[in-house]
Design brief:
The protein has a single domain, classed as Sandwich (Jelly Rolls). Helix 4 crosses helix 7 and helix 5 packs across helix 7. The N terminus is likely disordered. It is α+β, with helices and mostly antiparallel strands and 372 residues long.
């Protein structure tokens, strides 16, 4: 879908460029980025060109690496558990990211989850169209760029989304090509999420059930991202720099690579490790921990090979409509005279999520709005 105006804009003619029309034409195709690739484009449409982020591929620091934490025996050996808690505390304070191995989710399940998302995105375009929507109140959706009309540049990815908890879809509501693995993966990822929230609670010096009792693990949103090979990867991003709108994210990434975290003002690669999962702190955990744990910016590079596939589970709190006037703030047990609150009490996370969704992925933290 490369229109005349797109070609002129790529060649430097600005007067004929109508971004709004380009966005609508892309959206109305219901075929996403993969539809462009299937059509055989050799130059990316103007809407994908990232004017603000001139990518410097040399910015990656190869001498830094995200912590890897071995969860083996965390629930059987008190000495091992204490060491794991120390490692998690250190990673959450310094990085906001870590990888876990020996997490008890079989590698075969991780592989099948990646393959299930691949099968969905590589269906015939007509088969996928029934799922394409911008009505994100639906439990199962397919779209490209949730912030398509807000962001200054469009990301080179398509997304399958499914609300897995607290009220999962009925099996018949799920696409047949990935139905079974979605239900199977939910059992595994929920169990791991509960364990991580126990460890995170202890890493904050709280009772193991503190974060679970706050219902931090109540809501789970799964996003299955598909990043096709890009003909001009230096001009765009797979995902713009952002922080996550949740408590924690549990991510499966395939072997393509491209995920980076911003650490000490340097982009650091998070290379794929077979069987490992990427865990990162989200804005909601930074908020309730009063900044003790860090929600770090991260991004995904576009590549001229692919596709890259990742599956992210976002653990979020679901606030019933009748409780939307309730105020939330940093956990009181973490506050003191020496550690006063840095965030104001708010109708949170509802207010936060509305703000996050309205501004899109623009490289700025939504938490800035809530700082005292």
């Amino acid at each position: 879908m490369v229109t005349a105006s797109t070609k002129e804009a790529q060649e430097g003619g600005e007067s004929s460029y109508d971004r709004k029309s380009e966005l609508k034409a892309f959206d109305d195709s219901n075929l996403g980025v993969k539809g462009l690739v299937d059509a055989g484009i050799t130059k990316i449409p103007r809407i994908f060109i990232n004017e603000q982020n001139k990518l410097d591929m040399s910015s990656n620091n190869p001498h830094l690496s995200v912590p890897i934490i071995d969860l083996e025996s965390f629930d059987k050996d008190a000495v091992v558990r204490a060491e794991i808690i120390n490692q998690i505390r250190d990673a959450c304070k310094k990085w906001g990211f870590f990888l876990v191995i020996n997490h008890e989710i079989p590698e075969s399940v991780l592989s099948e989850m990646i393959d299930g998302i691949r099968r969905f995105h590589e269906q015939d375009g007509e088969a996928k169209k029934e799922w394409y929507t911008r009505d994100y109140s639906r439990k199962v959706t397919y779209s490209s760029n949730f912030d398509l009309y807000q962001a200054s540049s469009t990301n080179w990815r398509d997304t399958f989304a499914c609300t897995l908890a607290p009220d999962p879809p009925q099996p018949e509501q799920l696409p047949a090509v990935c139905r079974d693995i979605l239900m199977e993966y939910l059992k595994h990822v929920r169990r791991l999420g509960f364990s991580l929230f126990e460890l995170l609670s202890e890493a904050l010096g709280l009772h193991p059930n503190h974060l679970k009792n706050m219902e931090c693990a109540e809501g789970i949103l799964l996003l299955g991202h598909y990043y096709p090979a890009c003909p001009e990867p230096e001009l765009t991003l797979g995902t713009s720099s952002h922080t996550d709108a949740d408590f924690i994210t549990i991510l499966i990434q395939d072997q393509m690579g491209g995920l980076q975290v911003l650490h000490e003002d340097q982009w650091v690669n998070i290379p794929p490790i077979s069987g490992a999962l990427v865990i990162n702190v989200g804005d909601l955990l930074q908020f309730v921990s009063n900044g003790n744990f860090k929600s770090s910016e991260h991004r995904v590079l576009a590549k001229n090979v692919g596709p890259r596939i990742s599956v992210a589970c976002f653990f979020r709190k679901i606030i019933p409509v009748e409780n939307t006037t309730r105020l939330y703030g940093p956990i009181k047990e973490l506050l003191s005279e020496d550690n006063p609150p840095i965030y104001r009490q708010e109708n949170f996370p509802n207010e936060y999520l509305m703000h996050y969704d309205s501004k899109g992925l623009d490289g700025t933290s939504s938490l800035l709005r809530f700082k005292l």
